[in-house]
Amino acid sequence: MALRILLVEDEPDLAHWLSKSLSQTAGFNVEWANDGLLAYKRLSVEEFDAVILDLGLPSMDGHTLLSKLRAEGNLTPILVLTARDSLSSRVQTLDIGADDFIPKPFMVEELIARISALIRRSRGRDKPHMSCASLTYDSQTKCFSLLQKTLSLTPRESEVLRILLQKSGEPVGKVFILDRLSDTDDELTADAIEVMVHRLRKKLQGSDVQITTLRGIGYCLEPINET
C-alpha cells in the first residue's frame, strides 16, 4: 500500500533525485509536476496522500498554488521546500496553509520523517476511534460497529471502509483506494473496488450512514440526513 506523493519541483535534477530517494528509501509512489499550474490541475481531480511543494515555480508560484488549494477546501497535507529561511517567510508559508516546511539543503531522512508524520495525522492513525454517524471503528481491535452491533466484514471490505471513514465527508477516488490495497500478491482492479463498495452498501442498509457515488470522482461516506 504505497503512499502516493505529488512532488512539485521545477528543477529536473533535484526532482529526479528526490523521486528516486523517496521511492527507494521509503517505498513512496512519487509523481512529479514541474510547474504550479499543472500541479493545481492534478490536485483538483486526483487524490494524493501528501504534496512536497517548492515555492519558486513557473506558471503558478507555490504560494498561489497553496492559497488556491486551501481556499477550495483541499486538505491534502503539504510540506514546503524552501530556500527562504527568514522567520517572516516561514510564518507566511504556514499562515497560508502549509502543514510543515523544510529548508534547503536537507537530509532525505528528515524529509521522509516529516512527510510520514503529516500523513499519519491527516489519516487519523493516531486516533483510537473514528466514527461517522453510528458507524465506528476501533483502531486497536480493528473492528467496526454499526448501530452498536459488530459489523461483519472481509479483510478487504474492512480496508475499503476504513479508507472511506478516514475521509468521511470527502470524495475518495478509485485510484486512491487501489493504491492502498494493491500489493505484490494480489493485483486489484477498479471493478473489484466497485464490487466491494456494492457489498458495503448492502451491509450499511437500514442505518444512518451511506456510501454515495460521485460520478467521475469516486465515493463518499456520509451520514444520512433525515428530513
UniProtKB/TrEMBL annotation:
Residue range(s) of DNA binding per entry: 127-223
Gene3D superfamilies for this protein: 3.40.50.2300, Winged helix-like DNA-binding domain superfamily/Winged helix DNA-binding domain (1.10.10.10)
Gene Ontology terms for molecular function: phosphorelay response regulator activity; transcription cis-regulatory region binding
UniProt record, GO biological process: regulation of DNA-templated transcription
SUPFAM superfamilies reported for this sequence: C-terminal effector domain of the bipartite response regulators, CheY-like
Keywords: DNA-binding, Phosphoprotein, Transcription, Transcription regulation, Two-component regulatory system
SMART domains: REC, Trans_reg_C
InterPro entries (UniProt xref): CheY-like_superfamily, OmpR/PhoB-type_DNA-bd, Sig_transdc_resp-reg_C-effctor, Sig_transdc_resp-reg_receiver, WalR-like, WH-like_DNA-bd_sf
4-aspartylphosphate PTM sites in chain numbering: D54
A Pfam family hit: Trans_reg_C
DNA-binding keyword on record: yes
GO cellular component, one term: protein-DNA complex
Annotated Response regulatory domain residues: 4-119
Residue ranges occupied by any OmpR/PhoB-type domain in the UniProt entry: 127-223
Protein's name in the database: Response regulator
Organism expressing this protein natively: Pelistega suis
Lineage summary: Bacteria, Pseudomonadati, Pseudomonadota, Betaproteobacteria, Burkholderiales
